[in-house]
Amino acid sequence: MPWDKLFGGVNKPADAKDLTDLEKKHLPVLCAPDSVKAGACFEVVVEVGKLLAHPNENGHFIEFVELYADDIYLARADLTAVTTCPSVRFNVSLPGAVKQLRAFARCNLHGVWVSAMSIAVKE
User: Fold this and answer.
1) What is the per-residue pLDDT across 1-53, written as a single tens digit (0 to 9) for each?
2) Per-residue pLDDT tens digits for 47-91
3) Which domains does the chain have, with CATH numbers?
4) What CA–CA distances, in Å, run from 87 to 102, 106, 122?
5) Beta pairing class for 111-118 and 10-11
6) Is the N end or the C end of the chain the one with fewer CB atoms within 10 Å?
7) Through-space distance between the first and last CA atoms of the chain, rounded to whole angstroms
8) What angle do CA 19, 47, 57 make, to 5 degrees?
9) Neighbouring-strand partners of residue 43
């Protein structure tokens, strides 16, 4: 992917079924229940580098991970270069209207990356 495109917006895979190594290293992977009760707390794990290890050194690392429910901002974790595995756990609750969880992760060299998963919120 050309350098100027990496920082021109939010990056996502060109083909979700055939990921490049760059995409595998940078996509945040979400792990959460398929359905939850509205207002009930549950855990969401977001891991960058799960598909292919991402370097975490002073010159190349994941700076932050953010979690959204549709367009509702839920949480953020700031990371440092000494983080050996950029994996974060969030405890959140959702209102009934949410349909999708989205995770954003920013690499200091390769920009912001996003992935999403559907979630059913039951009243």
Assistant:
1) 555 566 678 999 989 999 999 999 999 999 999 999 999 999 999 999 999 99
2) 999 999 998 889 999 999 999 999 999 999 999 888 667 899 999
3) 3-10+36-122 (2.60.40.730)
4) 15, 13, 27
5) parallel
6) C
7) 43
8) 90
9) 91
